[in-house]
Amino acid sequence: MRVLVLAVMAIVLSGTAARAADPRYPDWPCTQAKVPEISLAAVWAGPPLDEVQSKWKDHAKISALVAKLSARKTPLDEAEKLVKEFLAASASDKTANAKLLFAGLFDTLNAQRSQVINGLERVSRKQREAADKIREETLALQALQGVTPRDDAKIEALSNELIWKTRIFEDRHKVVRFVCEVPTTIDQRLFALGRVIQQEME
């Protein structure tokens, strides 16, 4: 039982030790630095988008293409091919369509990224609460073990509950580590598609 208590504490402490590497973002659980939004200048070196930024939604074909290109289930090489085919068929409207397409991608992927970041921070807060609860229950278990006479049924029930909560905590921790990669993947997709759009405009 002492081994269980030590193992639980080790798992909880390891799961929360890396939290809040940047004091500006106390709920950010990832080792990667938190970048709340993608900067347009970091992913687009083409002509200014000011006049088209809010107009891409008015074009049904472009809106549908943006949705397909933004979906993570669409492989990047397929997305790049779709961009080339769309712009090749745009003829005299190529520059205007290219700008609308990128404006749509920028808006959509930035919004996706914000949802992922907000979700990660929500889970991080839940993990902190779970870690606090597990610590409390571990101390309660230690106290029960020191009481004479021992209430073995109560000790076993609390031990089983701790094992269950620790397993959930560990599973969430693994998911968070995986999801921490998603904002970077979105950045890379936007940069790659922006580069293809700019190349097709030239």
Overview of the molecule:
With 202 residues, the protein is mainly α. The chain is 71% helix and 0% strand. It contains 7 helices and no strands. The model has no long low-confidence stretch (mean pLDDT 86).
Order of helices and strands: HHHHHHH
Q: Low-confidence stretches at least 5 residues in length (pLDDT < 50)?
A: none
The coarse silhouette is elongated
In round numbers, the mean pLDDT is 86
Count of strand segments: 0
The total count of helices amounts to: 7
Distance between the termini: 69 Å
The secondary structure category is mainly alpha
Instruction: Please summarize the sheet with the most strands.
Output: none
Tell me the fraction of residues in β-strands, as a range.
under 5%
Helix content: over 70%
Query: Roughly how many Å is the radius of gyration?
Result: 25 Å
